[in-house]
Amino acid sequence: MNELSVPRPNSLDAFWMPFSDNKYFKGTPRMLARAEGMHYYTPEGREILDGTAGLWCCNAGHGRVEIVQAIQKQAAIMDFAPTFQLGHPIAFEAASRIAEITPEGVDRVFFTNSGSESADTALKIALAYHKARGESSRVRLIGRERGYHGVGFGGMSVGGIGPNRKQFGALLPYVDHLPHTHLPAKNAFAKGEPQHGAELADALENLVALHGAETIAAVMVEPVAGSTGVLVPPVGYLKRLRELCDKHGILLIFDEVITGFGRLGTNFGAERLGVTPDIMTMAKGLTNAAVPMGAVAVKNGVYDTIVNGMPAGIEFFHGYTYSGHPLAAAAAIATLELHKTEDLPGRARAMEPYWEDAMHSLKSAPNVIDIRNFGLIGGIELSSRPGKPGARAMDVFRRCFDKGVLVRVTADIVALSPPLIVENAHVDRLVGTLDEAIRAEAA
């Protein structure tokens, strides 16, 4: 058991909490103090079943001793080393381990510290690639409505979640968006990939006609849009998008921050969906969230074009102080070893039918207007209270926590993504508690 003496904070004032209702929380705090396996524990010792893998990230469960020991060992050997014009072996080993499980030919890895940094890095790589090949006019970046690519100005500009953007005024220029793929009139309560909507990818042709293919550098999408409320791609949609990008010389970027490392029952969403991007971003499950780390994997040709297309010296003027941080690299290696030896993707795939049935058992609960699932992801959409969008789901979230279950909400959608070590009994408790909470908040 991971015992740690955690004193109660004597003040909640100093910490400005991210993506939080600070005023509400500091009046009614809900605290987590310890984690192990499938559970968190409050400072009072109350058990909380984790239905969200933290924030989509603790795929191997909490407190894995193999990861803890790897971090401890590395901290004693070398706490930090720069990777600007220098290297340390463990960063190269971590990159090699990642390249072993990325799609074939996507073998070059650039380290970051988060999904947000990975998104901005991927966009910069796309721009640098086109410049290196003599097409400097390709500066336009295409995202998708309801997409989430972190909170850097690049990822936020290409992203398409309104509240994340509207507070900050003008963002990057030369950005446009594809329509989202949510078609509730045709696809409500679909199990897995919905059947309708592949034609929505053809909107890229409209953007090409509007802006000119020679101005477009890249299209960035999530294989499954997570933070917006679990939008699963329609059958054939991503394959069509791949074809159009190839047709017009546009790079395709997959944001695999959520869908990577077993979440969809495969190493990455690209594998499950049968589409290989030119660039893919990752974070979260890379280190099981034990140490912050992100990465961008690119096709070998993209790397070669940038590196070989520049004269001697620095080829790509970008990076972070903590790129390939030794402790993060150690955590990544240990996590990827668990990923392989315990076959976490296989566990997720084996659990998927039970998970799917459990998700759709909530269809009869009051105010449930849609349910979406793919891999070990679930989204339960609730009707909004008149004039109070998001209030119903937030009340469900709080009620579930108070009953010992952690879920996540975005607008009036409850999003679920348990650790991949989840078992049937955990699913039953998660869904049972959620069902009770939804019924209790029917008014």
Automatic annotation (TrEMBL):
By its UniProt entry, which InterPro entries does this protein fall under?
A: Aminotrans_3 (IPR005814), Aminotrans_3_PPA_site (IPR049704), PyrdxlP-dep_Trfase (IPR015424), PyrdxlP-dep_Trfase_major (IPR015421), PyrdxlP-dep_Trfase_small (IPR015422)
Q: Into which family does the record put it?
A: Belongs to the class-III pyridoxal-phosphate-dependent aminotransferase family.
Q: Which domain of life is it from?
A: Bacteria
Among PANTHER family, the record links this protein to:
ADENOSYLMETHIONINE-8-AMINO-7-OXONONANOATE AMINOTRANSFERASE (PTHR42684), BETA-ALANINE--PYRUVATE AMINOTRANSFERASE (PTHR42684:SF1)
What organism does the record attribute this protein to?
Answer: Neoroseomonas soli
Cofactor (UniProt):
pyridoxal 5'-phosphate
Q: Which GO terms describe its biological process?
A: biotin biosynthetic process
Which GO terms of the molecular function aspect are on file?
A: adenosylmethionine-8-amino-7-oxononanoate transaminase activity; pyridoxal phosphate binding
Q: Does the keyword Repressor apply?
A: no
Query: Which UniProt keyword terms apply here?
Result: Aminotransferase, Pyridoxal phosphate, Transferase
What is this protein called in UniProt?
A: Aspartate aminotransferase family protein
